[in-house]
């Protein structure tokens, strides 16, 4: 954990110094949906300080079956994961997602992963 909790991450190299290490249990979204008999997923909001790729990778069945709308934060500065930052977009493109960002209170389509903000919408 970092002193400023906004920077806590599953990465081994967060953006601020680590003050304390805490072990947390994780579960793939696909498994959570199955174990809790959830029959529909319309939206996924994801802000996991760089672990978005891992979240969506563990959501294969959800993304394939429901194709929910996605709101997630993209932070190209987080390090310490085994994937590259653009991998999340490459993964989601395989499910047919297109990407948008909010600029000046307007939703703008983004091509080539050239984002100007961190808040991404995908459908």
UniProtKB/TrEMBL annotation:
User: What keywords sit in the KW lines?
Assistant: Methyltransferase, Transferase
This one is known as FkbM family methyltransferase
A biological process term (GO) from this entry: methylation
Task: Specify the species.
Answer: Tenuifilum thalassicum
InterPro entries listed in its UniProt record: FkbM_mtfrase, SAM-dependent_MTase, SAM-dependent_MTases_sf
**NCBIfam families, per this entry?**
fkbM_fam (TIGR01444)
Q: Which Pfam families match?
A: Methyltransf_21
PANTHER family tied to this protein: METHYLTRANSFERASE, FKBM FAMILY PROTEIN, SLL1173 PROTEIN
Give a GO molecular function annotation for the protein.
Answer: methyltransferase activity
Boundaries of each Methyltransferase FkbM domain copy?
A: 17-99
């Amino acid at each position: 954990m970092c002193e400023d909790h906004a920077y806590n991450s599953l990465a081994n190299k967060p953006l601020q110094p680590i003050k304390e290490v805490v072990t947390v249990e994780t579960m793939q979204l696909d498994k959570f949906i199955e174990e809790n008999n959830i029959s529909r997923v319309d939206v996924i909001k994801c802000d996991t300080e760089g672990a978005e790729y891992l979240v969506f990778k563990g959501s294969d069945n959800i993304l394939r079956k429901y194709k929910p709308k996605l709101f997630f934060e993209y932070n190209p500065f987080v390090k310490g994961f085994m994937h590259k930052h653009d991998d999340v977009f490459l993964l989601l493109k395989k499910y047919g997602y297109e990407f948008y960002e909010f600029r000046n209170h307007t939703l703008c389509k983004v091509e080539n992963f050239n984002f100007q903000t961190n808040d991404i919408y995908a459908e």
